[in-house]
Known about the structure:
The chain is an alpha/beta fold. The protein has two domains: 3-189, Flavin prenyltransferase-like (Rossmann fold, 3-Layer(aba) Sandwich); 195-299 and 309-423, Rossmann fold (3-Layer(aba) Sandwich), CATH 3.40.50.10300. The protein is built from 15 helices and 19 strands.
Amino acid sequence: MSRLLIGVTGGIAAYKAVELVRLAGRAGHAVRxxxxxxxxxxxxxxxxxGITGAPVLTGEFEDDPLRGAxxxxxxxxxAPISHLALVAGADAYLIAxxxxxxxxxxxxxxxxxLVTTAALAADCPVLVAPAMNDRMYRxxxxxxxxxxxxGRGVTIIGPADGELASHGERGLGRMAEPADLLAACEATxxxxxxxxxxxxxxxxxxxxxxxxxxxxxxxxxxxRSSGRMGVALAARAAARGAEVTLVAANLAVPPPAGVRVIxxxxxxxxxxxxxxxxxxCDVLLMAAAVADFRxxxxxxxxxxxxxxxxxxxLEPTEDVIATLAGRRREGQxxxxxxxxxxxxxxxxxxxxxxxxGLDAVVVNDISRADIGFxxxxxxxxxxxxxxxxxxxxxxxxAIADDVLHEVGRLLSVKESDHRTTRADGNRAAGV
Length: 431
Ligand SMILES: Cc1cc2nc3c(=O)[nH]c(=O)nc-3n(C[C@H](O)[C@H](O)[C@H](O)COP(=O)(O)O)c2cc1C
């Protein structure tokens, strides 16, 4: 978990800062937002404070009810000076969108509002995401300002080329996407943990949620999985720059932005979707809770009470991860998730790893009520061929980060093995 200070300035892309703040919160970061007075004409503070759960300040003289603290941190006993306290507590300060006006002020050291004053007081890394009309962006004044800021160690992210806010216009000036902005902050804060090298451009297939197997037209056999863990994995992989496809089975939480979603309901639908997507992916994270058995003959209509208690005959569903692991090409990483009971959890996961030919199994102990199914927190052990890595109890976003860190390592090892095998083959063939 990191503490991010996000400064929002006046431009239409301020609406995208809402998504950025949402992604950052979902990824487990504590976020404070400050705004320029002009930005309030584009997006109100209530939106940001609703998402972050923290007050949003616009003026240097405004009282901060949290006294400079970040959500989850204890507040200071005394009222500190906000522009100093907020940057002192931040791991990174990102200004997004950064208007041409604010960039000019930053380049010249102006400190005439909370966003610019905080930038001048910042010891933490400062990142800016310019967003403006392409003529404003290409103006020599803006170019010089950005060059100056770059020279002072400020990270400039984007802008991107594409559709602009002004009606019918396209060009260079569009703000970088929120997931990319978050990934840039994380890479700045934890360059080693961010693994951006391992994940950038990787195609990641994630399954999440719990399948439902029909008994009749309205009833089903389901399970308690909410999909939170899979959704956190998808969000965190996307934030690291991966291209993510999420096979979503009956999620109780919204899917993350910036990922492709394929909705499924039953184990058979999940198997079909995963089988179709698997050949194109580099990593499969099978976090969905898939039924092992389904009613063999579901009734087409609703079963009536008057008909008496029905006898359900169950049949096994396809073990899709075992099938896919058996078909994987060199370099592909296949990760299973297991819910096991009590002390035998890790041994059960290892047996699964070997029997199904997986690269890793992430196991959690479902005998505990405080973690796992349908809770925001988890505590898991990552079991690989080399050993076991327990990940202490944390929010599912933080657990997802640690799991991806382990999987990123496996991916790099497989890749270098694959390269060595290819080079050996070429040498043997005299190429
Ligand atoms: C509808 C509208 C959209 C605007 N969009 C942008 C923009 O995308 N980028 C920009 O640099 N300025 C934009 N401006 C101009 C800024 O709002 C203006 O320069 C303002 O002084 C910026 O203040 P701030 O940097 O303190 O937030 C826009 C103005 C209007 C009226």
